[in-house]
Specification:
Glycerol-3-phosphate (1)-acyltransferase, 14% strand, 43% helix, 1-acyl-sn-glycerol-3-phosphate acyltransferase, single chain, 1-acylglycerol-3-phosphate O-acyltransferase activity, acyltransferase, 7 strands, seven-stranded mixed β-sheet
Length: 272
């Protein structure tokens, strides 16, 4: 997308957001040459701070190819934020509704119009204790295989030092560095022409996440765990540990789990 087509609202957002980002963060941005100069594409980015969408948007704005993010539909409804989201062409995600698939259709349409759509494949802030990318959701892979567009892996690090995941207060001093490393397009050609089954989408997503993780390994100068953090697996293990602790406590006091649960036992089971 030529820089002249960025539009008023994106330029206005840049005027507001860039000054504090420049003050708060030093920049180590590499790999801009991998951002396509023309044509539709998607970027896939790791997510480790509430600040990093702004810092990453700053990085990509400077390439001249502004990103269209997928964002929660509630942000679009009213007020200045809603006007900004609509004006900059972001894509609303309607979760658990009849419009849930509209975001993917909108993403495909944007790519086919020659725009960039930015995905956070993890779907949320990483919960990995060391900040590595988690397992990914399949939305980016679905759009990539549908459109066969370039998929550009982007790793970032440093905003998590300014505002760690799930923290409420930033750590302003010393001034942090926002590291970005963009890689060459992910090769998904072996999946082209395949039926987009759950297994194919899962495997393509694993290829995408592995590419992001390799970029982050280069930034950090260390190896990621062999198996990425899986929130579903962790929740399952946590439920199993909780159940084992309850059964262990019941055995020690000589009663069964049902007897110790009392009238609230059903509610405790639901909370798991």
């Amino acid at each position: 997308m030529p820089r002249r087509t960025i539009g008023f609202w994106y330029r206005f957002a840049a005027v507001i957001c860039k000054p504090p980002l420049v003050v708060l963060l030093k920049r180590d941005w590499r790999g801009m040459e991998h951002i396509p100069a023309a044509g539709g594409f998607i970027t896939v980015v790791n997510h480790n701070s509430h600040v990093d969408p702004f810092a990453y948007a700053h990085f990509q704005y400077n390439t001249g190819r502004v990103p269209r993010f997928l964002a929660k539909s509630g942000l679009f409804k009213k007020g200045f934020v809603g006007a900004m989201m609509r004006g900059t062409g972001q894509i609303p995600v309607y979760r658990e509704s009849s419009d849930a698939l509209s975001a993917f259709r909108a993403a495909i349409d944007a790519v086919e119009r020659g725009e960039c759509v930015a995905f956070y494949p993890e779907g949320t802030l990483t919960r990995d204790p060391d900040g590595w990318p988690m397992t990914g959701k399949t939305g980016a892979a679905r759009v990539a295989l549908q459109t066969r567009c370039p998929v550009i892996p982007v790793a970032q690090w440093g905003c998590n030092e300014l505002l760690p995941p799930y923290a409420k207060k930033p750590d302003l001093f010393p001034r942090k560095t926002h590291h970005v490393l963009t890689g060459p397009p992910v090769d998904l050609s072996r999946f082209y022409g395949m039926e987009m089954t759950a297994e194919v989408l899962k495997e393509a997503t694993e290829v995408i996440m592995a590419a992001i993780t390799r970029q982050l390994e280069e930034i950090r100068g260390e190896r990621a765990p062999e198996a990425p953090y899986d929130p579903k697996r962790e929740r399952s293990e946590q439920r199993r540990r909780t159940q084992a602790q309850r059964l262990g406590g019941s055995t020690q006091d000589g009663t069964s789990g049902l007897e110790t649960a009392g009238p609230s036992g059903r509610e405790e089971g639901q909370a798991q």
